[in-house]
Inverse folding.
């Protein structure tokens, strides 16, 4: 199949000097895709794709009405099926280009080391350790940081990944074959065989439905994300720790460091019930069981592999007394297994220990399978010691082998595969990732209102003042009497809220004490929101004021007002005695989550970023005053409008004294597949995170913003907020524009996640979730979520202060926060396209309204580009990021056809089609959404 076409690609001539060269890789993959299209759909289809490609490329260099008319003629005359063929062609092209770029990044990183083995790659762990040594940071301080450090990456189920898991898996297999095919030592026949594999995957990709036919349920999402642990994280995490240990030895050869695993992973899938009615207590338990099965199965396989390696015989080398005693105890627990082992491997005692560990893991798996939410724990369950009640017990068994090997000339064996397993157990535990629980503050208040009314404590809790609520909640928390009866006549929502807390306590007591660690309160506005959760903790057995507290209470501050009042809020919370008791049991540590998405949607890019910066400064100040250790949880998304952008630079641009070795960050949607689908990319990403945290904890110079800089930012934020709100919220017909000039209604129907697109009936901008809000502006190339209001604010400030430009240029040159603010705006401005956005605006039925609002958007776009160029002292956007600028410019001509097609399909779908035509059009529109998302490399 395709043998002649394969020969035409001239695989034998892959350049030896640079086999991964991006243009060469693109030529191979794009050429192969063209052959697949021609074979599958006929030469005419490939010819049509090529004609559209050339016209759109010409449009970028000479935007004449004749070219636009030619494109419109092509698209308007094609059937939906023919348009789908074009959409698929360009969508798959971007999937392959994204893949080629990843391979190119891997290659470039390797080339740096190959050319100079002593070189430290920028952003690597080695570079960070070297920087600390050059700064003169004493080893004692570095050890203190390693002891206290904790970096937690939390995978969420936010619906921004538009590609199906099936598609992602095929692209992953193509990447593996392409990487091997372009390696210098690949033989000609191997290249032909690998090329055949690539073609097979491309044909299957072409014949696969690009969009889901059914909305995935919560457990589908959970199972889909196991891939990143099994195929990537389990492999690379031990390597990160080896990198750190090696770097410390190289830079500080006379110091012995002890580094405990400080990298951790969390998850929201199956735990985040805010706005997702499908996340029930039963679903959460099923999620935990699925994750545990994944981890346990991996460890079982690991023990088989370890047994193959540890064939040391006690006839050749002795073992420790502790290992011998451990084996004797295991023999009492598993007499039949012990007898078999003594017959098969009487002298290979490490192998015997591996077999006993395997047996315990198997019983742990059986216990997990039989565990039921809130069900009675069977008295005839596994006997103590015959299974692992928590990861510490597994680690203890592994430590016994480690210590014995080191004491008997086996340190090199201990430092090998066994050390990797120990690292994985310390990082992933038995639960894979700690599951955060999250619910909206309104649900807690509603449930408490019903409970208080039932027991006669408050007839209308919602109408009480905040002071009255705090007094009532504090009084109940200090009381020993139970508040919630076992059998109650409450509504289904209130019962679900109560059962969630009971489920959490039961899981921690009877399934895994490390299964979950934090309970997050969305839209935390008042002290009563936090105390309400603490009261539910007490009622469920999670908190006992004189004994323990099993979970962190994590307020999520999301609105501009709540971020502005963050310090005052935390200060008052810490003054409440019963809450201080909770903190005492949690090691005097407080986690606070910062919401990037809703604050941006509410007040715009500039105002939200400044509010987040000020909130962090105030939260740290208050926590320090109360001698509380603060962990900031950054709820970042993939796009600039939701806190996205390069994570390394974002961490280094945080306010002074806000990192201190600990940080928690969300990884969402398409960001997860983009960063974690390939092991080398994932390793590079996590390296940069660790690098930034190490360097950010010991900055070479702390940039404390000058007072006048802060005053300037206050002015800019206030003006930007006013300008942004003036259009988005105050214009009486803006929602009408938004609904018509973007594919928001179609995105809301996209079957990419279990969670609905809005919390309510989507009657206003407020009702809409931040993710589809951003998604829609990206698709229509307005991208206003990442810049609108910036230009007007800066322009007004420059008019008011003759020295304003010099001040802003000084801020950009010396203040990492302000530099990142404008650089990220540059990136999203570069992905905007006012010519394409104008065509979407023409979809607005009231043409005058469309022209008016688009005119305001275009005017602000031009203002923002102008002032950023002035401040950054550049001639065009991304002048100092030529690689990114080049990538965007190369992509635009290939995204344009998808935008033209989407606009044509939206026009047809809104022109009263039949029910059958409508369904066909909706699927076609969803296909274009996938393609544009792949081309822009951003969704929500």
């Amino acid at each position: 199949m395709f043998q002649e076409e394969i020969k035409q690609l001239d695989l034998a001539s892959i350049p030896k000097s640079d086999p991964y060269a991006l243009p060469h890789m693109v030529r191979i993959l794009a050429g192969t895709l063209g052959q697949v299209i021609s074979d599958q759909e006929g030469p005419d289809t490939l010819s049509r794709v090529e004609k559209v490609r050339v016209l759109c490329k010409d449009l970028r260099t000479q935007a004449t009405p004749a070219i636009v008319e030619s494109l419109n003629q092509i698209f308007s005359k094609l059937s939906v099926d023919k348009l789908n063929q074009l959409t698929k062609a360009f969508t798959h092209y971007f999937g392959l280009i994204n893949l080629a770029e990843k391979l190119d990044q891997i290659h470039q990183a390797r080339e740096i080391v190959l050319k100079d083995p002593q070189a430290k790659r920028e952003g690597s762990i080695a570079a960070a350790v070297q920087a600390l040594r050059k700064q003169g940071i004493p080893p004692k301080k570095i050890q203190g940081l390693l002891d206290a450090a904790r970096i937690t990456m939390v995978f969420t189920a936010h619906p921004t990944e538009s590609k199906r898991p099936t598609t992602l898996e095929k692209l992953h297999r193509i990447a593996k074959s392409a990487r091997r095919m372009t390696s210098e030592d690949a033989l000609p026949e191997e290249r032909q065989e690998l090329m055949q594999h690539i073609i097979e995957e491309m044909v299957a990709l072409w014949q696969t439905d690009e969009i889901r036919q059914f909305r995935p349920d919560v457990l589908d999402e959970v199972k889909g994300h196991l891939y990143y642990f099994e195929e990537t994280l389990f492999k690379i995490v031990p390597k990160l720790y080896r990198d750190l240990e090696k770097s410390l030895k190289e830079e500080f050869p006379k110091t012995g460091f002890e580094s405990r695993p400080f990298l951790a992973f969390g998850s929201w899938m199956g735990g985040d019930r805010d706005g997702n009615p499908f996340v029930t207590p039963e679903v959460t338990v099923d999620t935990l069981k699925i994750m545990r099965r994944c981890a346990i199965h991996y460890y079982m396989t690991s023990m088989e592999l370890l047994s193959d390696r540890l064939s040391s015989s006690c006839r050749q080398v002795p073992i420790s007394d502790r290992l011998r005693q451990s084996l004797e105890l295991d023999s009492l627990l598993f007499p039949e297994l012990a007898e078999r082992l003594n017959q098969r491997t009487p002298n290979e005692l490490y192998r015997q220990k591996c077999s006993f560990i395997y047996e315990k893991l198997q019983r742990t798996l059986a216990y997990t399978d039989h565990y039921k939410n809130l069900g009675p724990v069977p008295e005839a369950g596994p006997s103590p010691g015959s299974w692992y009640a928590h990861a510490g017990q597994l680690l203890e068994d592994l430590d016994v082998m480690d210590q014995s090997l080191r004491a008997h000339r086996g340190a090199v064996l201990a430092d090998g595969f066994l050390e990797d397993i120990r690292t994985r157990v310390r990082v992933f535990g038995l639960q894979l990732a700690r599951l955060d629980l999250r619910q909206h503050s309104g649900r807690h208040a509603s449930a408490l209102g019903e409970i208080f009314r039932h027991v006669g404590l408050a007839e209308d809790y919602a109408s009480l003042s905040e002071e009255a609520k705090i007094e009532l909640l504090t009084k109940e928390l200090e009381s020993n009497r139970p508040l919630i009866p076992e059998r109650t006549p409450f509504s289904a929502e209130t019962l679900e809220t109560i059962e969630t807390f009971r489920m959490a306590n039961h899981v921690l007591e009877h399934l895994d004490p490390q299964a979950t660690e934090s309970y997050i309160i969305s839209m935390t506005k008042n002290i009563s929101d936090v105390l309400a959760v603490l009261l539910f903790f007490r009622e469920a057995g999670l908190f006992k004021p004189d004994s323990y507290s099993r979970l962190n209470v994590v307020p999520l501050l999301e609105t501009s007002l709540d971020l502005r009042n963050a310090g005052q809020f935390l200060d008052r919370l810490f003054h409440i005695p019963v809450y201080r008791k909770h903190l005492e049991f949690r090691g005097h540590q407080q986690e606070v989550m910062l919401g990037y998405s809703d604050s941006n949607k509410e007040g715009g890019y500039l105002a939200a970023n400044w509010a987040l910066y000020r909130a962090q400064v105030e939260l740290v100040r208050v926590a320090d005053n109360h001698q509380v250790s603060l962990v900031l949880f950054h709820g970042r998304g993939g796009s600039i409008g939701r806190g996205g952008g390069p994570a390394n630079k974002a961490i280094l641009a945080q306010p002074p004294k806000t990192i201190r070795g600990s940080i928690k960050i969300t990884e969402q949607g398409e960001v997860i597949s983009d960063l974690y689908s390939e092991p080398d990319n994932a390793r590079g990403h996590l390296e940069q995170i660790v690098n930034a945290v190490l360097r950010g904890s010991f900055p070479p110079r702390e940039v404390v913003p000058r007072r006048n800089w802060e005053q300037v930012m206050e002015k800019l934020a206030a003006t930007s907020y006013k300008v942004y709100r003036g259009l988005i919220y105050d214009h009486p017909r803006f929602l009408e524009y938004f609904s018509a000039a973007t594919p928001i209604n179609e995105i809301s129907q996209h079957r990419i996640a279990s969670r609905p697109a809005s919390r309510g009936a989507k009657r206003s901008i407020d009702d809409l979730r931040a993710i589809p809000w951003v998604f829609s502006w990206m698709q229509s190339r307005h991208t206003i979520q990442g810049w609108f209001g910036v230009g007007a604010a800066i322009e007004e400030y420059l008019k008011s202060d003759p020295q304003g430009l010099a001040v802003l240029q000084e801020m950009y040159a010396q203040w990492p926060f302000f530099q990142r603010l404008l650089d990220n705006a540059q990136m999203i401005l570069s992905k905007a396209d006012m010519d394409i956005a104008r065509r979407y605006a023409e979809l607005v039925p009231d043409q005058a309204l469309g022209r008016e609002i688009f005119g305001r958007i275009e005017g602000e776009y031009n203002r923002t580009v102008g002032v950023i160029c002035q401040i950054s002292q550049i001639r065009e956007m991304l002048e100092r990021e030529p690689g990114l600028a080049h990538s965007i410019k190369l992509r635009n001509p290939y995204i344009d056809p998808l935008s033209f097609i989407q606009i044509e399909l939206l026009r047809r779908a809104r022109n009263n089609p039949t029910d059958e035509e409508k369904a066909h059009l909706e699927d076609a529109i969803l296909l274009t959404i996938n393609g544009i998302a792949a081309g822009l490399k951003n969704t929500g």
Observations:
- Confidence is low (pLDDT under 50) at residues 1-17.
